[in-house]
Amino acid sequence: MPNLKDLKNRINSVKSTRKITQAMQMVAAAKLRRAEEAASAARPYAERFNAVMGELAASVGDGDGAPKLLAGTGSDQVQLLIVMTAERGLCGGFNSSIVKLAKAHAERLQGSGKTVKILTVGKKGREQLRREWEDNLIGHVDLSDVKKLGYGNAQSIAEDVLARFDAEEFDVATIFFSEFESVISQIPKAVQIVPASFEADDADSGGSTFHEYEPSEEEILADLLPRGVATQLFSALLENAASEQGARMSAMDNATRNAGEMIEKLTIEFNRTRQAVITNELIEIISGAEAL
Amino acid sequence: MADTMQFDLVSPERRLLSGDAKAVRIPGADGDMTAMPDHAPTVTTLRPGVLTVEMDGGEQAFAVTGGFAQISAEGTTVLAEEALPTGEVTAEFLNERVEKASAARDAASGADLDLATKRVEDLKALGAQIGVSAG
Q1: How many CB pairs under 8 A join A and B?
Q2: CATH number of the structural domain B5-86
Q3: Residue A126 catalytic?
Q4: A108: which residues sit within 8 A by CB, 6+ positions away?
Q5: pLDDT (tens digit, 9 = 90+) per residue, A212-247?
Q6: How far is B50 from chain A (nearest CA, A)?
């Protein structure tokens, strides 16, 4: 039989754990709200950007003159996977589900004879990928010092990626991140960013508007494509931040509930044990009295 | 003919301004242009400069460092990489940009050099225009 003091200690330790998880849940809820706001504030830009890019891309086409960022290098031999995860754990399956998707992707690519290179953003993804894909990791972006995600963060990642593209280090780049659906549902996603693919939104723009371009279409496209990479990275970062907080919030909510259940069970056990001890003592006293 | 049009100024991080504008003066890459209602559909890239919006309540000016503008008959959208009300631009902010552009210029060559030089000049002109001195 477990002794009373041990039980008491366990109850106390579970209680303090519950306090911590409860606090973490509340912090995550507050951060989630801010992350969601940031994500929705960034949406108009991304939407407009993609609409214009879609139009431009459609009019310039995939011809010989098209920039490499749009048309591709003509090969898909070297694949760059940009795996974006959180800097911290304790957020349920958030990090693992992104890494799982990336791993499946990497295995498939390697299986078909492609060269896989991996760039990680966020410490957790790196830790998980290091076990099996150590040799494929080519870089890491540390965002642990970043308090508030800004466009600048996305820009510096984009500069790194574009420099590698210019140096012909890869042909195709895909980002892995988690799309924020709701607090209880975050969907890991893979989106190809180089060569860029934009869906021309014909229904929205009327399809028939012909724009004048100043300077020429090609020049604008060459100017905007690198920004498109940054824009896509930025919205992925923001989605990821919101997803992370959402995942952490529900993970911590679960943990708090589990701790509550555990405390109840332990309290019942504690009470039973205490009663047993009392009964035992009584029996001893009574039988001692009877023996006299 | 409508005398106002829908105008939006958005940066990657947030929407800065949205409303009805009478005219918008845009610092285009090839020169300034003023967009008014029923302007021909145009897409232009921006150079660092001052963007002025004429609205019912008066004029508002923003410093932009780059991006592009989409003008159509119904409205104008400016997608600025960075945009700040001119009153909030500090010498520090500007110097940082100028330094970065200068570093890029020093590293550039050929056709890129011209573009990079222009960027530095544009940034300095922007500073002069709003009365903030840049190094």
Answers
A1: 76
A2: 2.60.15.10
A3: no
A4: none
A5: 887 887 788 888 888 889 999 999 999 999 999 999
A6: 18
